[in-house]
Amino acid sequence: MARLLVVEDDPFVRSALIRQLTEASHTVRSVGTALEALREVAQVGFDLVVLDLGLPDLDGAQALKMLRGITDVPVIVATARDDEAEIIRLLTDGADDYLVKPFSVAHLTARMAAVLRRAGGGAVAGEPAPSDVLCVGGLSVAPLRRRAELDGAALDLTRREFDLLSYLAGRPGVVVPRKELLAEVWQQSYGDDQTIDVHLSWLRRKLGETAARPRYLHTVRGVGVKLEPPSAEPPVPPAHPPTALEHR
Ligand code: CA
């Protein structure tokens, strides 16, 4: 658990971040401008700041410099531009790490754990508690370690597949709307259903199931997707009862 300040002006991204980070038992405060962020860090102690660089009041690099002028709290910058020169400049100017938008909260959580570990002392550091492993039937997912296993065998998942599985595993038995998956896993407020369908079908293949014969992943048409333990295998039909003929 860490005390976090999220600086993000997009209300949609912000509320998704707050919700998920709070669910991961962090204490989260959030502001939408650089000046508010400066005021917050001057008044409240934080373990880490997540700083969006596209803020309405100050240029991101400027905001980072001013922040560094008053505190050495670890800062992860979130940038919309995958621009190497810009990223190098930010890291030189005092950012501890960066994420290119859109990013998933699972990705942010992993970066946060690494930054806090380096900062020496965040409670996210070290091995996660056993409760940080989500178990659904024979499936276990450890979001911080980014490991997933099915019946004890490690699953080889891409980043997005892992994020999707991890998000669903945190809500077993709940039908998660597609819109929510786009927002929470893809960090997009809109998008096309095909993106989700394609990743679902890859994930299904790795879980050894198909849409026609689902075990863990269930698509609820027109609503969303749900992950739940497979229902018991249908009982093997009893052997044909002995006939009078066999008794003879
Ligand atoms: Ca922004």
UniProtKB/TrEMBL annotation:
<keyword id="KW-0805">Transcription regulation</keyword>
<dbReference type="InterPro" id="IPR001789">
    <property type="entry name" value="Sig_transdc_resp-reg_receiver"/>
</dbReference>
<keyword id="KW-0804">Transcription</keyword>
<feature type="compositionally biased region" description="Pro residues">
    <location>
        <begin position="231"/>
        <end position="241"/>
    </location>
</feature>
<protein>
    <submittedName>
        <fullName>DNA-binding response regulator</fullName>
    </submittedName>
</protein>
<dbReference type="GO" id="GO:0000156">
    <property type="term" value="F:phosphorelay response regulator activity"/>
</dbReference>
<dbReference type="InterPro" id="IPR011006">
    <property type="entry name" value="CheY-like_superfamily"/>
</dbReference>
<dbReference type="InterPro" id="IPR016032">
    <property type="entry name" value="Sig_transdc_resp-reg_C-effctor"/>
</dbReference>
<dbReference type="InterPro" id="IPR039420">
    <property type="entry name" value="WalR-like"/>
</dbReference>
<dbReference type="GO" id="GO:0032993">
    <property type="term" value="C:protein-DNA complex"/>
</dbReference>
<dbReference type="InterPro" id="IPR036388">
    <property type="entry name" value="WH-like_DNA-bd_sf"/>
</dbReference>
<keyword id="KW-0597">Phosphoprotein</keyword>
<dbReference type="Pfam" id="PF00072">
    <property type="entry name" value="Response_reg"/>
</dbReference>
<feature type="DNA-binding region" description="OmpR/PhoB-type">
    <location>
        <begin position="131"/>
        <end position="229"/>
    </location>
</feature>
<keyword id="KW-0238">DNA-binding</keyword>
<feature type="domain" description="OmpR/PhoB-type">
    <location>
        <begin position="131"/>
        <end position="229"/>
    </location>
</feature>
<dbReference type="InterPro" id="IPR001867">
    <property type="entry name" value="OmpR/PhoB-type_DNA-bd"/>
</dbReference>
<dbReference type="Pfam" id="PF00486">
    <property type="entry name" value="Trans_reg_C"/>
</dbReference>
<dbReference type="GO" id="GO:0006355">
    <property type="term" value="P:regulation of DNA-templated transcription"/>
</dbReference>
<feature type="modified residue" description="4-aspartylphosphate">
    <location>
        <position position="52"/>
    </location>
</feature>
<dbReference type="GO" id="GO:0000976">
    <property type="term" value="F:transcription cis-regulatory region binding"/>
</dbReference>
<dbReference type="GO" id="GO:0005829">
    <property type="term" value="C:cytosol"/>
</dbReference>
<feature type="domain" description="Response regulatory">
    <location>
        <begin position="3"/>
        <end position="116"/>
    </location>
</feature>
<keyword id="KW-0902">Two-component regulatory system</keyword>
<feature type="region of interest" description="Disordered">
    <location>
        <begin position="227"/>
        <end position="248"/>
    </location>
</feature>
